[in-house]
Design a protein that fits this description.
The structure holds 2 protein chains of 2 kinds. Chain A is mainly α. Helix content of chain A is about 70%, strand content about 5%. Classes of the chains: A mainly alpha, B alpha/beta.
Chain lengths: ~325, ~260
């Protein structure tokens, strides 16, 4: 066949029925078609700490999980609610400082401070972000970017909460295994939990807000109310990762408001594939270790990093996961035009 | 039509900067009727819909629904009371399948209260209720259509989906903003019985249209807007015969000429 007379045709695999997410399974082979990718992810993540060569790399895994949680929260807000959130640093800082205070001032152990900081911090972030929720457009992104800058300066200028020294003497997790498996467990639970959430009826309303909020209003639902629920969920995830971070570093300081926590999750989402929830996690699993490997290059690190990013955006702008899912679910064949 | 009006619009005005889009428009809508609103482009038809449903703030005037003042209520509160609308530029949830488009309104407080379209109080599985509504509105139940992503549906189905989204709330009033525009003659012909059936089900309709022939066929009363002011209100025959309407709306042509070319 001449190239001009043929084109590639994409066909869904047979077990897909009618609509997204409904499959007809009649054999073990078809069952494994759906379950194997999920099992690979779950078992792979659970095995990670065991296969890491050193304590240093085990620590990298925990930091990766923290970024992955932030990326998950970013992807949820950006692709399922339509809010571009640059507030990763805001969530990490709020959760971190709350956990630090709960631990040092009130003497609560980590297994209590982390959930407490997640819920209280999540509520606090939601209330602070509430004023820009009725608005559409870039306002939410800008405000969520400004808060961490503002809070860091406030702590620095007023010398409260330890000022520039930060809060020291925070308890660590019981041991490094508890630390790693707590974060991996939380990541898996939240990842599958959020994915389940976006397919419930409440999740559909949130996705409806992204598609068009006017129709939500015309259906008798308050857009602000549902947006605030979504922001609460996302900020709980963010604060949880921040609270875990201070227990890992045993220190809470204004570097928790650093913009890395806002930017890296976005980069991971771009690489991993937005709107898949798993993609951003995979993105973090690539980016954070790569960033560690490149440490040897000193300041050149950021150059390599930028090149990797640019290459991805040019050659695979849809992201690893979106590309992978498409290849997995569809055949391609040449047909005559 | 007798008794108290279900919807009473009193002297509603709206100015966008210096442009007066609506100038003291007043009208009543009675329970169970179909009121048509016509007018040339830019005469304020969509603006009046936005004013009633709270999507834009009125400069002055008031709107009452069943004797209750709804002038300054936000859109979701007004929809919650039972006044729903379709959008002239269709606004489905493009990334979702058609039936999932209805799960969203069925999740609303009003649908939970009223049981959704013919739900009889308790709402069952929202997916099934959604497909029921779609069937009612002309989606072939056993075909692929209700499961197709909204972005792939043709205009005719999208217009129906707009009405279906209103029906999911079990509305008392539906305001249809140009649901016939952009449809082929045969599609319109199949929409007309649908509109008549909604009226038989006791729903009050306000229809904004450019397609005069179909509108005059279904509506009980017609109101004409021109440059933001109400020209005339009356039954379709009266409106057609009125010289002011001919002057403003149809230009030099007679109504019959326009209707045959519409």
């Amino acid at each position: 066949m001449d190239k001009g007379q043929r084109r590639k045709e994409r066909i869904d695999r047979g077990i897909k029925v009618r609509t997204e997410g409904i499959y007809a399974l009649s054999s073990l082979r078809e069952l494994s078609y759906l379950s194997v990718p999920r099992l690979v992810l779950i078992i792979g993540l659970l095995a990670l700490p065991l296969v890491m060569p050193s304590i240093y790399w085990q620590r990298v895994i925990t930091i990766t999980c923290i970024y992955a949680l932030l990326a998950l929260s970013f992807d949820f807000l950006a692709h399922f609610v339509g809010l571009v959130c640059l507030g990763g640093a805001f969530f990490v800082g709020t959760g971190g400082y709350l956990a630090a205070i709960a631990n040092t001032t009130f003497g609560l152990p980590p297994w209590m401070t982390v959930p407490l900081a997640a819920v209280v911090g999540g509520s606090l972030c939601t209330v602070l972000l509430l004023p820009c929720l009725p608005l559409r457009g870039v306002y939410f992104a800008i405000v969520s970017l400004m808060y961490p800058l503002l809070l860091a300066r406030v702590i620095e200028a007023l010398d409260i909460l330890g000022g520039t020294d930060g809060i020291m003497g925070i308890d660590s997790f019981a041991n490094r295994w508890a630390e790693q498996y707590f974060l991996i467990g939380a990541l898996l639970l939240l990842m599958f939990g959020v994915r389940r959430l976006v397919n419930t009826d409440l999740g559909l309303v949130l996705r409806g807000i992204k598609d068009n909020d006017q129709a939500i209003r015309a259906s008798g639902m308050s857009v602000t109310f549902y947006k605030s629920i979504a922001v609460f969920i996302a900020s709980v995830i963010g604060c949880l990762s921040g609270a875990s971070l201070v227990h890992i570093y045993m220190w809470s300081g204004i570097s928790q408001f650093a913009l890395d926590f806002s930017i890296l999750p976005i980069a991971a989402t771009v690489i991993g594939g937005g709107g898949t929830l798993v993609g951003p996690v995979l993105g973090c699993l690539l980016l954070v270790p790569i960033s560690e490997l490149l440490r040897d290059f000193g300041t050149l690190r950021i150059v390599f990093y930028a090149l990797i990013m640019v290459a991805f955006i040019i050659f695979r702008s849809e992201g690893i996961m979106v590309y992978g899912q498409r290849k997995y679910h569809q055949f391609e064949r040449w047909t005559e035009v | 039509m007798s008794g108290k009006p279900i919807l009473r619009v009193q002297e509603v005005s709206k100015a966008f900067g210096g442009i007066i889009a609506l100038n003291k428009v007043s009208f009543d809508v009675h329970e169970g009727e179909i009121l048509g609103i016509i007018g040339p482009n830019g005469s304020g038809k969509t603006t009046i819909v936005n004013c009633i449903t709270g999507f834009i703030k009125k400069s002055s005037g008031s709107v009452e629904f069943r004797g209750k003042d709804i002038t300054n209520k936000p859109p979701h509160k007004i929809a919650d009371m039972g006044i729903t609308r379709t959008f002239q530029i269709m606004r489905p949830y493009y990334s979702l399948p058609a039936y999932k488009n209805l799960v969203i309104p069925l999740f609303s407080p009003r649908a939970k209260r009223t049981g959704g379209w013919r739900g009889g109080g308790r709402l069952g599985d929202r997916n099934t209720v959604g497909i029921d509504i779609l069937e009612e509105i002309g989606f072939e139940r056993d075909s692929y259509v209700p499961y197709k992503t909204a972005s792939t549906l043709p205009t005719g189905y999208l217009k129906r989906l707009e009405v279906a989204r209103c029906l999911a709330l079990r509305p008392e009033v539906i305001i249809c903003d140009e649901i016939f525009s952009g449809l082929s003659m045969s599609e319109i012909a199949s929409m007309v019985p649908l509109i008549e059936r909604l009226q038989l089900d006791g729903i009050t309709l306000i229809m904004i249209e450019h397609r005069l022939r179909e509108l005059f066929r279904v509506s009980n009363r017609v109101m004409v807007l021109n440059f933001g002011e109400k020209l005339i209100e009356g039954n379709p025959q009266e409106v057609m015969a009125d010289p002011k309407v001919r002057e403003a709306y149809f230009g030099s042509q007679t109504v019959e000429e326009v209707m045959t070319h519409a």
